[in-house]
Amino acid sequence: MATFPALVSPSRTTCASLRRQLQVIWDEIGEEDGDKDMMLQELEQQCLDIYRRKVDSSRKHKAELAQSLADGETEIADLVSALGETASFPQRVKGSLKQQLSALKPALQDLRQRKQARMIEFHETQLQIAQICAEIEGNDINTVHPTIDECDSTLKRLGELKSHLKELQTEKALKLNTSLNCHIFCSRSLSSCSLSFCV
Question: What band does 8 get if pLDDT is binned at 50, 70 and 90?
Fold first, then answer.
């Protein structure tokens, strides 16, 4: 009765153990040494090709992660600069690329939300400024479309715009008050004129 080599547990199978099993099987079959060497070289080449593809894909994935990290850090720097908030710049953490990206994402998301909220405030302020300017100049306020400089969305710039808005609101109120006083004066003058004609 022929004895067969014990099968190795799949979880413990290694290339070396499989190669030994293959050698035993080929010996039992009666394969020539030259054929065995050629088949082993083919197997080694196939293994090398598989490893090479895996190394190449892993290298590409690493480059993509590194690029994502660099892009995230650049975006954070741009957001921090635009918002004028240098204190909120997160420090790079030590660890793998995935750990660094995970640490970067919350800070990036927070800065994006803060910039979005700030841009809404800028838009509302600049829209009011443009509408008041259009009213003062006698233009249609429905055609007003303010442009917003997203590179400078600092609190200082927002404060300057709000200060300018208050000045315009004061100017508008003065003009309305003057116009109202003029209208009242004219109405009274016309009333007194019409009364004098009636007498």
Answer: very low
